[in-house]
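Example record

One chain of 64 residues, shown exactly as stored in the release files.
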Amino acid sequence: MKIGGVKSTTKTERVASHSHVKGLGLNDAGEADPVAAGFIGQEKAREVVSAPRGALPPVPPPPH
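Predicted structure tokens for this chain:
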């Protein structure tokens, strides 16, 4: 007697991680638009991230 393999009936789906974000949503003056480039809100955070490295003062360490 030959025993055959059993196929799964569960559907397999592959999902690739991806993003619809296309930049930081900043205008020519470097100010964030409230809704732009896939972002909603977080205007101040997006403006800070866009600053060139070294343009901001270093953050002091937290107190002990």
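Notes: The chain has a mean pLDDT of 77.
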